[in-house]
## 1
Amino acid sequence: MLHFECDYACGAHPAVLKALMETNEEQHCGYSEDERCEKAREIIREQCACPDAAVHFVVGGTQANLLVIEAGLRSFEGVLCADTGHINVHETGAVEATGHKVLPLPPTDGKISADQVREAVLLQRGDSSHEHIVRPAMVYISHPTEIGTLYSADELTALSETCHELGLTLFVDGARLGYGLAAMPEVDLPFLARTCDAFTIGGTKVGLLFGEAIVMPGKALRDCFRYHMKQRGAMLAKGRLLGVQFEAMMQDGLYVKASRKANQQAQAIKQAFVDAGFPLYCDTLANQIFITMPNEAYEALSRKHAITYWGKVDEQRCAVRLVTSVCTRDEDVAVLLKDIAGLASFA
């Protein structure tokens, strides 16, 4: 079985494993206060062109999301997001378990707009019983989105300006950020540092064994953040393992370079489906692709390849997701391309 159902099925990029082996016998203090973590922070700050940014390392994406959102909200405040957003549909109510309500908005192509944010905020503020309604105080988006689409620089700028005008914070979930950076260079790390109050640089899905970097360019969310981390079990005792991995992956542009190859593999897979006569469920430029196919074609392909059933389109067809990663092998892609061509009779 070849795996294309997610971008964390493999272990880690060879450069990360090499770094872990080479530093294995080093001894450091714990909880990410070591020299390796500080070096990784320096690299991230330099690449973000933000020397004063706070950078925190945690193990997973859900952990990062709930920490940032909890730290940024008061008890009566909630977070706006797309109704397809990860915090709304794939985190088992982790944010709401902290006591904060997720406030979903209907997306277009997986994205929410500045106008929607403004409307939602003004609707609550203008209600005569506003003190009885959860107050929106943060906007959460992901880049790429849950359906693999990307926010343009103009869309992110509009969201940022609207949030700051209205007194909200903007948080970008970058669990797959490497693939987004590779697919849309106009939205780079310095741009995100100028635009967002907080964002994550995902490692778990982009070449690390585990790990996410939380970047806070401004000061709005920093107060007592490590207290939040400790209370939520997010301080890894062997924190140096996070620093070593990020140091290896962020050096010399590897994070984006390796992501770009994964995007190219995904786009080749997308083109193979199109050539075989299968329509796109939605068009994407990064490492996730979504295809509409007859149920029989999905069943045939999934006998040999682990892929994700995304949902029912109609009685005869379903939507399917395939994902590549920085660890996807070219030889596995070649096998998949051949098998996709063999599905042409189902189209």
## 2
Amino acid sequence: MAYIKLLYHIVIRAHQGTAPIAEEYERDLYMYIYGFCKNHQCVLYRINGMPDHVHIFVGLHPTIAVASFVHDLKIATNNFMAKHNDRFPKFEKWEQSYCALTYSESDKECVIKYIMNQKEHHRKMSARDELIALLRESGVEYDEKYI
């Protein structure tokens, strides 16, 4: 028997910094992502974001690799937003890159609160600066030309 818990904070961004997620329709997208997670036997702990990016805190099923999860999520949400173009007319696609950071159970509440407070957080910090701060805090090496 394997005992596994995989908690990921995932950030996906709209292509070239566009802002296609209107606040009035973000809940539709978030509910779709909730269903996607549930259908993939994953636990969505929190989702929130801004018009140009989405933060997802999820417990992945042990049979799903994070790269596969993000790839399939992007395809599914691309299709969802294309189908609902009246709500997401500015959406083209997601950036190819993404951020996926692991956390322990003891970090869970802190990450949930962080994601809950996205709108407040971004009154003080740009999405780019936020991503750099998350990467630095997690000790992830990065190249600024890709951020």
## 3
Amino acid sequence: MLLHMRTTIILPDGLAEQVKRHAVERGCTFTSLVTDGLHLVLQGPSGDPPPPLPAYHGDGQILVDLTDKEALWEALDADGWR
């Protein structure tokens, strides 16, 4: 038997609207989205943080400077469309 408790939460208007839109986009209810979010918060961090992305080749060559937009686009376009 499932037990549910009805409760009221007070959310800022903007946040409530975002949750409603996101729920519609996902095809779920406002309640299920809030419930899933609370479950994630109560779980806490899941394990170790992901490893850092590599910044250099073994020979010391910088792979891509993410602050250089042109270099980033050049690297992304280097092997053509996929």
## 4
Amino acid sequence: MRDRKNTAEWKDSELTARIRKGETKWLDVLIERYYDGIFRFCCCKTGSREAAYDCTQETFLHLLRYLDAYTEQMKFKAWLYRIAANVCTDYFRKAARAPAGGEVLELIQEEEKQFAQIERRELIERALRSLSDKQRETIVLYFFHGFKLREIAEITDTKMSTVKSRYRQALEKLKEYMGKEEAD
């Protein structure tokens, strides 16, 4: 007879059979096995961590309540996820709410911002590569390191008029490059 230490190798069907016989201690094993996945699923369905906690708990209560109705025709995991989907649907019916609540919208907006920042950064890198080495150096020192044109002249050991010229030419090229990219 196997003990709880080796439950990772136990099949769901073995665990459900034991639970049906009244050995409810094995329910903990199933809950541990599926809790995180069910929670993530409920979180996606409800759009709220708080609602996902409630729906996850309700899913496992339904599991216990309806385990006798479970048949081996469907994989246990699929059956459990179907219960979770139904619980989430009921959650919206009872609360008269629409799915994808504020938290999901905030997460999506945050991801879109991060994606836009990455795209913008890549565009800037491509634009900088279109400049000559001296122009790029001037722009990088000015915008990314905060040096004034006078300081850039000192750093690069270049005349102030040359630094100003590189700066103006670089800005014109960048403006032209960015305009082309945004038009595409």
